[in-house]
Amino acid sequence: MACACGLPAHVRPVPEGTLALEAGVGGPAVKLEGAPVPLPLSTLGASYGLNGRWDLHAHAHLTPLLLGVAGMDAGATWLALEQDGARPALALTGRGYVFSDLDTGALFHGEATAAASWLLRERFLTYVSGSALYDVVESDVLWSVAAGTQVPFGRFALQLEVGWYWPGYDASAAGAEWLTPGGRGALGLVLGGSYRFGGP
């Protein structure tokens, strides 16, 4: 269920020479006394635009610290296609994760994401995305699909994303009661924010 948790999709690279500070919180939703509550998985990080098509990014995962586990990710986003009328822009992201209790060892995961996006009315960056995360412990690929939108307010931007995590998973076998469509996977919500320094 941890596929892309706490990290909204990197929809397009940040502009060249721009440093963006980023924060995100959310994840799959569990039912607490009948009410769906997204897991408060939180991240804090930054992206830097290398040129119009590439950026680099890294994030610290804050919630695992409550359990004595340090986590971070690092990756890059490539704008493979520009938007052309109704044809969406296509961005591809590769990301590596490492989690460790700083005592017994570390766990590594790799993730690939594709995001198709449309800039609507020159303001609303709306998108759909799909992610696949390789779980090295289980030697399995966990996947998710999502849709969301990003809205700028000057150099600040808010992003809201609804995701379906691991749709192939039989949620009835889980210890928690997930918010799940048809008993498969879990639905969730992620809220992100960013602030840009430099660049256009």
Give keywords.
64% strand; 200 residues; single chain; 10-stranded antiparallel barrel; Porin; globular
SSE layout:
Elements: E1 19-32, E2 35-38, E3 42-49, E4 54-61, E5 70-81, E6 89-100, E7 106-120, E8 124-135, E9 140-153, E10 156-170, E11 184-197
Summarize the structure.
By secondary structure, this protein is an all-beta fold.
The domain tally reads 1
Q: Please provide the ordered H/E string of secondary-structure elements.
A: EEEEEEEEEEE
What is the averaged pLDDT score? 91
Major beta sheet summary: 10 strands, antiparallel, barrel
Distance between the termini: 37 Å
Instruction: Please name the CATH topology.
Output: Porin
User: How are the strands ordered across the major sheet?
Assistant: 1-3-4-5-6-7-8-9-10-11
- SS element count, helices: 0
Report helical residue fraction: under 10%
Low-pLDDT ranges: none
Gyration radius, rounded: 17 Å
What share of residues are in beta strands?
over 45%
The structural class is mainly beta
Number of strands: 11
Report the principal-axis shape: globular
CATH-level-4 superfamily name: monomeric porin ompg
What is the name of the CATH architecture? Beta Barrel
> What's the CATH first level?
Mainly Beta
